[in-house]
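Researcher: I'd like a structural prediction for the single chain below. Treat it as a standalone chain; there are no partners to consider.
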Amino acid sequence: DLWPAAVARRLTEAVAERPVEALTTWVETAAARGVDPFGARVLSLARRRIPVSRMAEELGYSTRQLQRRSLAAFGYGPGRLLRIVRLQQALVLAGAGLRLAEVAADAGYADQAHFSRDVRELTGESPRTFAAGL
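Model: Treating it as a single chain, here is the predicted structure.
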């Protein structure tokens, strides 16, 4: 699910034929490529609540390029990443015992209704129910 189908198919076929050699080659190749710092950089910008257009500018991408790279790195675009990070920050505040209206304001939501809509859309639960499960 994480890789393009052709890549996954080639690795699956290679592992079926020669498991140890195929996996050893795959690990060595992955290690030689190194870690792409893109994901960490985008996440850092999202945690600072940098808007998507400014994220793209700071990273030297067009917004479309940022969208494509984010889809590959996270499975969703930078706008959704911003929403998820904001929700995570809100849940930390809710876990600290703040009232939901305070949580919404401190986490950067326009109002409590905006917070409630985001929680429902991203988690499928009400803010109170979701916060109670923390």
